[in-house]
Design goal:
Length: 296
């Protein structure tokens, strides 16, 4: 596997069907599941590692974001990537960079309401990656369900010839959704973080038992979150997976999402509720401790 820093290098080296996995690095099994899926279905897997300043609305969060390119390169190679592009901030956003992309609709509400400008930053960087790498397929996690809807709308509206694939959330063995930010959770705080998935799983159980009222399901999850000390809930909301539209009764695929602060770490999580099958998609669980805690 080769580490490069420009789109020109990627285009020189990539061949056949190109799969792109956009990330901010500090890999865990969630990232590796995307890379493995890309390796199974494309000829050249390009992983991008770029902590995109445009999508951070708190400078403290940007500064504290974990980074380790050597570790990421080793893990990406094991998972089956051929190229890793780690562009510099000044390459992605030189002084004369005036364009910002805004995807209306899907960007509003939930994360968009709490993180002003976040999805404009995401849409802008993803558009640059699509234009620079020119992938045939791009892989994203359902962990960021709203982001996935924003990216699908972006690719469709701007006619990028790329197929977007969404993959299941990977969780630790106790249910906590993997996030690079989890390494900032220690001691008691780690226990409080479990409140997010516990609340979502309780609502999933109610959905599978037949509950279709969004008010009842969000109430179930919010009540459970509220009983944990050390958890400051930002929102518990549901929206259609396709276009992040509000719903009262679940008639199409919906994601039920939570965002909460645990100490100074902000976490998000969701479950997908499918009224067609009557089942909730809670993602997949690791059987062992994550590589976040002492892997290579
Ligand atoms: P990030 O590096 O956090 O920007 O994430 C890069 C990609 O990995 C995004 O498409 C995320 O949705 C995905 N991702 C992050 N965490 C998980 C997870 N726990 N399970 C599955 N995908 C994930």
């Amino acid at each position: 596997m080769k580490v490069v820093h420009t789109f020109e290098e990627v285009r020189d080296l990539a061949g056949g069907r190109i799969g792109l996995v956009p990330t901010m690095g500090f890999f865990h099994e969630g990232h590796l599941s995307l890379i493995k899926a890309a390796a199974e279905s494309t000829d050249t897997v390009v992983v991008s590692v770029f902590v995109n300043p445009l999508q951070f609305n708190e400078s403290g969060d940007l500064d504290a974001y974990p980074r380790d390119l050597d570790r990421d390169a080793a893990l990406a190679e094991t998972a089956g990537a051929q190229l890793l592009i780690a562009p510099a901030d000044s390459y992605m956003y030189p002084r004369q960079h005036y364009t910002r992309i805004r995807v209306a609709g899907a960007s509003d509400g939930m994360e968009g309401a709490y993180r002003s400008g976040h999805f404009d930053g995401v849409a802008t960087v993803v558009a640059k990656l699509f234009a620079g790498v020119r992938p045939d397929v791009a892989f994203f996690g359902r962990k960021d369900a709203q982001q996935l809807a924003v990216v699908r709308a972006l690719a469709r509206d701007l006619s990028f010839p790329v197929e977007i694939r969404g993959l299941p959330i990977v969780r630790e063995s106790d249910g906590l959704a993997l996030s690079s930010r989890n390494i900032r959770l220690d001691g008691e705080i780690r226990g409080s973080a479990l409140a997010l998935s516990t609340a979502l799983f309780a609502a999933s159980d109610a959905f599978e038992a037949g509950e279709r009222s969004v008010a009842a399901l969000t109430h179930e999850a919010a009540t459970r979150l509220g009983t944990h000390s050390g958890v400051e809930t930002e929102y518990v909301e549901a929206a259609t997976a396709r276009d992040v539209a509000g719903v009262e009764t679940i008639e199409a695929e919906v994601f039920l999402a939570v965002a909460a602060r645990i100490g100074n770490v902000r976490l998000i999580d969701n479950v997908h509720l499918n009224p067609g099958t009557g089942l909730a998609d809670r993602g997949v669980r690791l059987s062992e401790p994550s590589i976040l805690y002492g892997g290579p």
